[in-house]
Amino acid sequence: MTDTPATAPVDVCGVEALPDGGVVRYDGPGVTAPISVFHVDGELYAIDDTCSHARESLADGWVEDCAVECPRHASAFDLRTGEPSGPPAIRPVRTHRVEVVDGRVVVHVGTPRT
Ligand code: FES
Predict the structure, then answer these.
(1) Hey, whose CA ends up nearest to atom 4 of ligand 1?
(2) Which CATH number goes with the domain that contains 22?
(3) Could you tell me if residue 70 is inside a domain?
(4) pLDDT attached to residue 8
(5) Strand order in the sheet with 104-109
(6) Which of 49, 57, 75, 83 to mutate to test the pocket of ligand 1 (most atoms within 8 A of CB)?
């Protein structure tokens, strides 16, 4: 399997498809594993979609206080850092830099959020 280059920009969707409180899961060209983009209190956050514990989609999770709770076993991942709140997940998920370019949500897969 070939990894995506560290700064490959991926056009995920138009901004109209991601209102505040929303999430978009993306598994198309430019990624080797799904990513999810969350819109929370006016900020966009992109992370790996798959929980680091047991391959659950985090896009299906509950978002509160800038963290998404995995729907399967309830570890919560900080959307800013990807760090889990506690077991059963012990490894973080990757974060990715995200920006809006000409009305499109663009994720730089492999470039961590700073
Ligand atoms: S699958 Fe996510 S915490 Fe277990």
Answers:
(1) 73
(2) 2.102.10.10
(3) yes
(4) 75
(5) 8-14, 104-109, 95-101, 43-48, 35-40, 23-26
(6) 75
In a domain, 89, yes or no: yes
Number of domains the chain contains: 1
Atom number, ligand 1, closest to the C-alpha of residue 71: 2
Residue 1 falls inside a structural domain: no
Q: How many whole angstroms separate alpha carbon 18 and alpha carbon 100?
A: 11
In this prediction, residues 33-39 reach a mean pLDDT of 97
Percent of the chain scoring above 70 in pLDDT: 94
Note the pLDDT tens digit of each residue in 87-114.
999 999 999 999 999 999 999 999 999 8
Q: Give the pocket of ligand 1 (CB within 6 Å).
A: 51, 53-54, 56, 70, 72-73, 75, 88-89
Structure tokens at 83: 């760090």
